[in-house]
Amino acid sequence: MRAVCYPRVSSSQQRDRDTIESQRRVLPEFISRQGWQMVKPIETYVDDGRTAKAGHLDKRTGLAGLLRDAALGLFDVVVVMDIDRLTRSEDLAERGAILGALQHANVKLAAAMSGQVLDLSTSSGDLFSSLHAFFAAEWTRKHRTRVSEGRITAVKRGHAPAGRRPFWLRYDKNTKTLSLDPSRGELVRELFERVAAGESCRGVADDFHQRGAPKPRGEWNRSVAQRMIRSKTPLGEWTVDQKRALVLQVPRLVDDDLWRRAQDSMNANAHRGLRKTKHEYLLEGVGVCGRCGAPMGIRSAVWDA
Question: How many whole angstroms separate alpha carbon 61 and alpha carbon 3?
Fold first, then answer.
């Protein structure tokens, strides 16, 4: 049979640890043992650090190419480490869209970990693939609940929850406490002071980038700088979970006066940069996202009657 591989890891942490490399080794070896012909290079359909959560299907470009070529009849079987690498979405429509597309293309599904080969056109293949996907989705539900409960418990005890923390804070595993990172803290204070003095977030972020300053997740850019300025975490209140209103008291980075002056300066800069339009728009230059602090864009459209 003509076979292809679909290597995938779901998180940026797994991507950074190169955990997908084991899949790049194991999947072709499995195909060889089965006596199948590998008709596409291992890199053809890869989603490295692409989540399988519901609502993010469009981000999995490797999967999109896989399903497109399946419909063209370019291969007979797709090999994954396990079925949950293909889909563990809680959205039944998304699970159906993936498995249904392979079934319609008469493409079999093989799991290298278990050695199982499922013919989705048969009753047993249909059943087992659906059950695998369902139990993977159920694990996701339970895992999310455990993580959420863990965050709530940690915050109630005054401890930092697992996961990402503010850029300028560091975590001590022994004492389970957060403290200011001296170099990163000074960098964020500099950001506040320069923005409060009238510089733009873009200008300061570009300067940090050119200086090779320690980076937050990703790169220094205007949006990152704006989120830091708009956040109240530098005032000592880290909103860990906005939906549940979980707030953790953390070391204060700036005082109220500097924080307010930075907000005023950002608002003034936003007004100076407004587009010249025929109309005045409510909240233009003032409205910001309540979650990340990014400015809200405004536009109008002309509709035919």
Answer: 19
